[in-house]
Amino acid sequence: MNFIKKLIFAPLFLVSFVSLIYLTTPLFKTYDLIFSFSLNTLIILINIAILISFSSLFFILLVTIAQDWKISIPVAVIGAAVPFFFIDFSLAIVFTIGIFLSLLLSNFNLDVVLKSYLNFQPSKLLGPPVRRLSGLLILTICIVYFFSTSKIINQNGFQVPDSLIETAIKMAPLPEANIPTEQMNLPQITGEQLELLKQNPELLRQSGLDPQVLENLTTSQENIQAPVNLTNQLIEQTVKDQVQNFIKPYQNFIPAGLAILVFLTLQSFTSMLNLLIYPFLWITFFVLEKTGFVKFEIEQRPVKKMVI
Known about the structure:
By secondary structure, the chain is an all-alpha fold. It is 72% helix and 0% strand. It has helices at residues 2-6, 10-24, 39-66, 69-80, 89-116, 122-156, 162-171, 181-184, 191-199, 201-206, 213-247, 254-273, 277-290. α3 packs across α5 (89-116) and α6 (122-156) crosses α13. The relative contact order is 0.11. Mean pLDDT is 78; it is low at 174-186 and 220-228.
């Protein structure tokens, strides 16, 4: 029964950690995701940060409750082997080594803390180890991301994502196309309205208009839209070519830059989320104590003082 109690947080750690590895897998397949300024990308990064915090929290709780290397180390080995089921073998090896070292260092550090504390305060004792483990896991993810992007760029080269160019152009004012005043003054009619008028030419005749005007109107609207679309395409291609030529000499440094960008992004999110770890730790041990899952003993120790 005591052995089962020591393993109570192991399933929670493994479930959250498997979910973390599964969710980070798309990061290692392309570098376009980090350039995507979309709500979906933001949600993915936030979910990764949440799972990093949960994985770190549950592993620290596992080590705290078990206080036995024979329990925590096998669980760490199982967690470290998870990447082999989701990513390439070469990247999985790097990921596994990084994960195992992160868990091992956290286990060793926490073991020292648990053997030397005087008063058990979960927030003060376990909060810093959770934050350190979160940082180590983020660092491991970024190292794997660095190797994956290096491999992709070496094979296919680096292409500036179109989404990044489009976003930059939308934020900058575009030059207006030279459109004749007569065309600019034409009424703008939707396709549905044009079809309806074509099917009912009598409505135009009743208004004293020739149905042939519909064809002229359609042609005029197309002539207005064509130079606008052509201008946008030329601007996008020109900007893309200029950016591409500018970054070409620095292509070897791009994977490192992207890895740093991912690290800063995830570290920022987890730093905010880890603020909630402290009250969560207090509530967790409050519930464990009230339910009799853990007990605390108050000790009185002799203190040696010098008196003159």
